TrEMBL record:
It comes from the Bacteria. GO terms for molecular function: heptaprenylglyceryl phosphate synthase activity; magnesium ion binding; phosphoglycerol geranylgeranyltransferase activity. Prenyltransferase that catalyzes the transfer of the geranylgeranyl moiety of geranylgeranyl diphosphate (GGPP) to the C3 hydroxyl of sn-glycerol-1-phosphate (G1P). It comes from Algoriphagus sanaruensis. Its cofactor is Mg(2+). Sn-glycerol 1-phosphate binds at Y170, L171, E172, A173, G174, S175, G176, G201, G202, G223, N224. This is Geranylgeranylglyceryl phosphate synthase. Its EC number is 2.5.1.41. Mg(2+) binds at D23, S49.
Amino acid sequence: KKLSKLISELAISGRKGVAWLVDPDKYLDFEALNWINEADLDLILFGGSSVDSGVFQSNLSTLKRRFPRVPLCIFPGSADQLSPDADGVLFLSLISGTNPEFLISSQIKAAFKVVEFGLEALPTGYLLINSGELLSVHKASNTLPILNSEVEKAVQIALAGKLLGLDYLYLEAGSGAKEPVSPEIISQIKKQTGLPLFVGGGIRDSKAVRRAFDAGADLVVLGNSIEKDPSFLAEVLEFKAMYNQLLHVN
Ligand code: 1GP
């Protein structure tokens, strides 16, 4: 199934999704994830800020072999992180900053390869928003986050992204953020753009997942918390199933 179809089905139905972010640099402990029912996991995102390309390719193939039925989308930290073995790529533009490298230059570098590999590209506005912490994504991108208190500014950027034709928005607090993107910003951006929203960074318990879902996130992205405790993925998938069920009963 095409990734765009999967995401628009979620956004249109109001059902919520969970995406597991796998860092290509980290050892993948599949034993710890043996119980996962593939059907419950909506999406795997694969990528990171600094990755050796050999490790990237081999871990991606391993992941695809292990979870053949879970859609696998590249979340590229650079133009080198592309592979024909994935189902698609978040074609990100970091619109919360003004670093040309991440606004357009990396995308130019990647363009031929994306087409050659036949990857489905999801045009996605990437916004870094948190409570003022500087995390690895800020250092890597050489941009500052929008603050959780700057609601209007965040909405303005998101709207500009929509007007430019971006189909998806990824609201990112940064991996390991102390505070995730605020519900207020999520809900205002959802209300004023209507675009499907990925929300990630610093989400480490079901309460935070619920807050993001309630505010309007379509897909919550979880990285660190699963790395630390793989059973958290089970917990969240169960929570999501319950949330979706309640949503449809009421
Ligand atoms: C980072 O949004 C993701 O790009 C996930 O962040 O690792 O904090 O879950 P965490």
